[in-house]
Structures are given as C-alpha cells and as structure tokens.
Amino acid sequence: MRVNKNSLLVRMIFYNDIAIIVASTTIALFLTFIAFQNLESRVIDSARDKIVLMNRAYNGEILRAKDDLNQTLRNISTLSNRSLKNIASYNEKVAIIRNQLTRRNYELYSDSILSIVDENGFILGETKRKGIPNKIDRETFKANVSNADNDIKTSYFSKIDDRIYNKIIVRYNDESNRKLYLVLTFPITEKTIKNLASLSSLGEDDKIFLIVDEKYKMGNFSLEKNTQFLSKRDVNRMANKGYNYIYRRKNIDNEAYYIALSDIYDYQNRYIGSFGVAIYYENIERLKLVISLSVIVIVLVFIAISTTISSRMFSKLLEPLGRIMEAAEEVSKGNYRIFVKPEGVDEMRTLSRTFNKMAEDIRANEEQAKSKNRKLVSTLKRIDAVEKILMNIQIENDMNITVKEIMSALTSEMGLGFSRAMYFRYSREIDTMVGEFAVINNKIKRDISNVIENGRGFKFQIEELNKLIKLIKIPFKNSNLIAKSLLEKRIIFQNDKGYKHELGNELFKSLGINNFLIMPIYTEKRNYGCIVVDYFGKNNLVTQEEVELLTLLFLNISIRIKNRNLEEEKIDLERTATIGKLVDRFFKSRETSFEKMLEFTEKMHAYDSNNTLFKIQIQEIKEEINKLRREREILNEYVDIKKNNPLEIIEIETILAEIISEVEPKLEKLGINISVFINYNGKVLGNRARLKRAFYEIIKNAKESFEKKNDDNKKINVIVTKEKNVDKIRVNIIDNGIGMTQEQLENIFEPFVGYNENAPGLGLSIVSRIIKDHHGVIKYSSQLGEGTEVKITLNIYKEEIL
User: Fold this and answer.
1) Are 415 and 409 in contact (CB under 8 A)?
2) In terms of DSSP H, where are the helices of 640-687?
3) Cα torsion at 239, 240, 244, 245 (round to 10°)?
4) How far apart are CA 118 and CA 124, in angstroms?
5) Average pLDDT of the residues in 244-265
6) Quick one: pLDDT band at residue 80, thresholds 50, 70, 90?
C-alpha cells in the first residue's frame, strides 16, 4: 500500500524500528563475543585432545614393542630349529632376536637398535644401525633396572647429540647366571612423526612436529631444521596425567596456527624436547565469519518478529488496523481460511485486499510445502538408509552373503522399506539367470492377513516365495527386463503390475509383483546377478529420486567388489613374483651342485660297479635330484602361467585324444579303466599346451585317487557334452577313487595346499588359473569313499568373436 512519509503509521514504524535495531545490535554484539570466546575455548580443547591422542598413540607403540620383544623371547627357542643357548656370541643372539622383531613389523623395528646389557650397563652385544649412535648412560640404566625387574616402567627417553631416543628395557635370561637385559632403542624419526600424524586424527591442514632445545627438528612444516621455534614457554601451562602441555597461537610460514606442545623428559626429569601439534587457525577465522553471518541473520529475524509484536501497540493508535490484526492472529494459529472486508480509507482497503491475497497465497504455499516436506522426509530417510547400507555392507568371498545383507537392508522398515527382494544369480555355466533366494519385509509378514483381505495378494506369494524363486530360470537375453538390466548395467523400474511386462519366466505372473525395480550387481569383468524389489501389498510408487539413490548405492557396491577383486589379484601377483624370486635364488645356484653330485655318483659307480647296495643308493640320489628338478619346473610353470600364451582354435575331441593316448598305457598297468564319451565335438579358442596341461593334471589326480583304494573296480570317465540353448561346452571327468573331504574341497585351488608328499601342491592351482584365463568355469564335487567329479565349462568358439 502507498503511505505518505508524514503519516502516523510511517512515524511510528520509524521510531519503533530505531529502538529494535539498537536493541538487536547490542544483543548481536554480546552473542558474537560469547560465541567467539566459546570458539577459542573449543580450539584449546581440540589442541589438547590432539596432543593427548598423539601421546597415547606413541605410548601404545612403545607398549606394543615391549609385548613383541617379550613374545619373541618366549618363542625364540624354536627359531631355525636351534636354541640361543647354543650360540656363543651375544652379537649373534641379539641379531637373531632383532631379525624376529623385524619379521613381526618391519616398519616399526627397521630403524631400531637392540642391545644385550649386563646389570652394570656394559653392552655385551648389539645390532648396529648406520647413522644412529647407541650410547647407554650407565647411571640412568642402573636406575631403570629395578623397574625392568619388577615390570613397572620399562622405558625412558634419552637425548644423544640433538636426537631423542626411547629405550625399552626387558629382562633377558640365558644359560649363564648373570643378570642380563635387552635394551631396544627407537629413534624419533620422520617416519615416527608421520605415523603419529595418521594416528592423531589431524585435519588436512593441521601439522605435527618435534622440537629439541627450542629448535624445530622434524615434522610436516616447511621449516628448515634447527630453526628457532619458541622463545618463551611459560604460556598457559597445565598438567594432565603426567604430561605437561602448553598452548599458544603462532604464525608459521605466513599461516596462523594454534600450537600445543607435550614436553619430553628423560629419566632424571630433565626437559629434552617436545612433541607439537599445530591446529590450522584460518579454519577458525572462517568459522568466525560464519558465526557473524549467522548472528546477522538472527538479528534480522529478531527485527522482523519484534516489529510484528509491536504492531499490537499500533492497534490502539490505528483502530482500523484492529480487524486486520485479529485476522493476522488467526493466520498465526494456522487458520488461513479467513476474509477481511475492505473498509475505511483507501489505505485500509488496500491493506485489507493485500492481506486477503496474502492469506490465499499462504494456503497454497502451505499445501505445497507439506507435499514437499513429505517427499523430503522420505528422501532423507532413504539417503540415511543408503548411507547405513554402505557403512555396514562387507564384500564377502561368498557373494550370496553380501547380497543377503543388501536385500535385508532394502526390505527393512528402518531402511528403504520395500516389501520383497528376490535375487537371481547369473550362472556362467549355463548362461542363465537362476533364482537363489528371497527376503521379505517383516511388516508384510505380520500384516499378510490384511493384505489378503484388501485383495492385494495371496498368502503363498509370501510364505512360499523362497521355494518359487528357486524354480525360476531366466534366459540371459535382452528380451526380458531382468537380463536386460544386467546386460545394460542399469536399474530398470516400472510403476505397474509385473505380469504386464516380460520378466523372462511365466512363474513371475503368479508372484503378484507390483511397482518394482531391477538392480544389477556387476563389475567390469563379471556379472553377478540382479536383485528385484517391489511394493507388494503397498500403494507406494517408485520415484526418480529413489532410482538415483539406488543407482549410486549399487555403483558404490560395484566399485567395492572391483576393489576387492583387484586386491586379491594384487596379492596373487605379489605371491607369484615372490615364488619366482625364490625359485631363481634356490635352484639357479644349485643346478651346478646337482650336476657335480651326479658326476660324482657315476664315478663312484664306475669305481665299484659290482656293489648292488651302492647302485640302489645312487639311483635314489638321481630320483631325488629329478624330483627337485620337476618341482622347479612346476614352480616355474606357476610363475610363468600368464606368459607366452598364443591362442588358436582347438577341437576338444582332438586334445582329449592326445591326452588319453598318452596316459592310457600307464593306467592299464595300474588296473584303471578310462573311457571317453563325446556327445559334442566343439571347438574352443585357447592355448593348446595350457588346456592340455589342465586336462592332464585332472586325470593325473584321478589316477592318484586310486593309490589308497583296495578295489579292482577302478574307472575314470571323460564325458563331453553341449549345454542346451547356450554356446557352452562341458567336460566332465569322473572317477570312483577315494574321494575328498569337505575341508579338502574348500582348499582345493589354494597354492601349496596338497596331500601328495612328492608334489608342491600347485597342480590344481595352475588348472584353476588356466580355466579362468580361458573364461571358463571349473567345479569340484566329491564324496569321501565314493569318488570325485570335475565339471569344466568352456565357451564354444564362434568365428565372429575374432
């Protein structure tokens, strides 16, 4: 409305606003002062917490070192199959003990010095470390010996030159009656400072450092070593649990920090240095700015509220505003369905009409806000549920366990609240999606009677769901939505009945699927399956926001699965590289020795050719050398399994025929009958030598399974078939040998896990690698005392894949 500058309303509002602004400004300044004081106090608390946490972390490392040293001493008698009592040199003893410590934790003990010291402080033996002097103050050592004997306080700090060390004293008993002690010396290094920084939960811009003689020695400041750091240390001192702390604000490298120091004292309580934590102060300045802006907003809100309250006073001076004021009070109570009749002068009429329009807009905005608020609450709830899923889900070796955890979260009322979740695993053997299991919302289980009464479903769709799911098989083709979701690696959803859409199996029409989503689980190299969720028995609709959240969830899960697989591959590669180095180191230097041994035995045999016993012993030596050479070949094959593997088109029948012709004579001598049944002569793309090696190893294992079986009925059957409706060829190798236990089956592909004393246990590990590199699947099933069946599934070669 239009108001003249000399009107009473303008004058009253003007004077009222002056009073409000003065009062608000005073309150704002007061609140800002209190907030800044509180913020400074919080910075001090934060600095204290960081320095205390750093001290605890360092003390924890010292206690851990002490425990490792004691544990090593208890177990040292088993090292290298000899006791330390048989070693005369204390230097050898201390070297063996330190070697065991570095095996426990190389990073922790690589820079340490270990010494054997008598009760008078004389060093009897020690491990040297280049660049790190080892001086033991005899008087200080004697003062700490009683503590070490009583296991009270077994460590202390010392300073040598301008470096600080921590020494741990542990009682050491050997075959003599002398009182000896082990002294483990740790220098405080850049590595120590770096580890303390990670354990102290410092911020990205916070710093950690070490001061010796008031000079900067090390840390993550860009200061030069021996830079003068503090000139006065008598600021805000306090003591806490045996540590002294000081606090002070300081500019370093043109940046403001809040410094907290923890003093380091030697055994005689002499100050030798300080650990320090620097809290980046610019973050505090930003927070002060945010607080200031917040106070300004509060002041503005306060002014608005105060103006509204003071309007009651204006009603006494401006009676026509009374009715509008009453209407405004109704609005404040939530009654927006009011109407103020325009009366009085033009200003009042204009004000009344404006008020009516405002009330109408508020009504519309309220309805809109309620609707948005409901959506927002639902979205926030789902975001929280997704966050909890990401925090709690662990990627297990058995993907079914991980999927069950995800499905439980999807169907929880505290989670995303879906009614049912069904998992369909992709089987690489039959190129089909197979129903595995289902998870049902507990609330739906309890309210099933209400669902049936309202005509929203049937009882069997809940109680028999798991049985029905296991009967479902879905072709892995783009023609159905479930396979399409996995093929295209995206979420597909429909706010509709499931029977109206092609899901890949007629059984879906009986499940009552309603308003559903299909979520794929995959990595770049492998498809795992799909989870189907729906709102059975509910009127909920799938929203786009919901789909976007779930897309982020399953993308994160895919990344975590990929990272786990990469970690396993990394471990496998590192293990393979280590094996390769060991093979080269062990066998390369011994091949000449083998040749000399063989040459020597031949000469001895020629010298005494009539000695039958000597001839037998020479043959045994040759067999042992050949065994070692064979093991070297197997180890080299394991290391080089992925090198030089050219691909070619191979007929399975041909490669099996070559293997059978090679092994059949040997099997006949052992009374083992081998039969081949080829129902399909398919071709695969692969490496002939490696595939032949894999099949040979499996048949060899089948042969060995008869060694402990006292039965004339010894059979090995090789069956080649083609999977129906998919381009897969299957090779089954079945024997009726002694079979395997469940434990043996679980570890069957692990390297160096074998049950033949004459083999390194790498055969089936190599077989597994070969089949995996050919994009195939190998599965073992066995019953102890009945036999073993091996199922190998390979992709049939197609010309268009070249």
Assistant:
1) yes
2) 652-669
3) -90
4) 7
5) 75
6) very low
Q: How far is residue 787's CA from residue 717's CA, in Å, rounded to a whole number?
A: 11
How is residue 341 written in tokens? 């009749």
The whole-angstrom separation of Cα 14 and Cα 7 is 11
pLDDT at 58 over 70: yes
Tell me the two tokens of residue 178.
């002398």
User: Residue 302's pLDDT is what?
Assistant: 77
pLDDT over 50 (residue 82): no
Cα-to-chain-centroid distance, residue 451:
41
Average pLDDT of the segment spanning 36-62: 80
pLDDT in tens, 483-511: 999 999 999 999 999 889 999 999 998 89
Are 197 and 52 in contact by the 8 Å Cβ rule? The answer is no
Give 21 or 490, the one with higher predicted confidence.
Answer: 490
Residue 516: the pLDDT is 94
Q: What are phi and psi of 181, to 5 degrees?
A: -140, 150
Contact between 529 and 424 (Cβ < 8 Å): yes
Q: Are 759 and 583 in contact (CB under 8 A)?
A: no
**Distances from the Cα of 569 to the Cαs of 410, 574, 595, in angstroms?**
31, 9, 38
What is the distance between the alpha carbons of residues 801 and 686, in angstroms, rounded to a whole number? 13
Q: ∠539-544-546 over CA atoms, to 5°?
A: 70
d(CA 409, CA 553): 12
* Residue with the two structure tokens 């004459």: 758
| Amino acid at the residue 422 | M
Residue 50 bridge partners (DSSP): none
Answer yes or no: is pLDDT of 423 > 90: yes
- Is residue 249 over pLDDT 90? no
Other CB atoms closer than 10 Å to residue 639's CB: what's the count? 20
Q: Phi first, then psi: what are they for 472, rounded to 5°?
A: -90, 130
The closest of 447, 358, 438, 347 to 400, measured between CA atoms, is 438
Q: Which residues does 652 contact at the CB level (< 8 Å), separation at least 6?
A: 678, 681, 682, 683, 684, 720, 729, 731, 794
Q: C-alpha angle 608/610/615, rounded to 5°?
A: 75
With 0-12 CB in 10 A as exposed, 13-18 as middle and 19+ as buried, what is 340? buried
> Which one is predicted more confidently, 57 or 615?
57
Among residues 768, 698, 779, 786, the alpha carbon closest in space to that of 745 is found at 779
Residue 569 CB contacts under 8 Å (≥ 6 apart), including other chains: none
**pTM of the predicted model as reported, rounded to 2 decimal places:** 0.47
Question: Nearest-5° angle of CA 39, CA 41, CA 45?
Answer: 115
Sheet arrangement for strand 728-735:
673-678, 715-722, 728-735, 787-795, 777-783
Mean pLDDT over 275-296 rounds to 78
Residues 6+ apart with CB under 8 A from 290: none
688, 648 Cβ separation under 8 angstroms: yes
What is the spatial distance between Cα 761 and Cα 752, in angstroms, rounded to a whole number?
Answer: 4
Angle at CA 458, nearest 5°, toward 455 and 459?
A: 135
State how far the alpha carbon of 586 is from the alpha carbons of 389, 577, 580, 582, in Å.
Answer: 49, 14, 10, 6
Q: Which ranges of 589-611 does DSSP label H, i.e. alpha helix?
A: 591-607
Residue carrying the six token digits 């059949």:
664
Distance, C-alpha 306 to centroid of its chain: 54
The residue with greater pLDDT, 790 or 76, is 790
From the list 184, 158, 157, the residue with the least C-alpha distance to 172 is 184
| Nearest alpha-carbon partner for 764 in 744, 735, 783 | 744
Give residue 563's region: left, alpha or beta (phi > 0; psi -120 to 50).
alpha
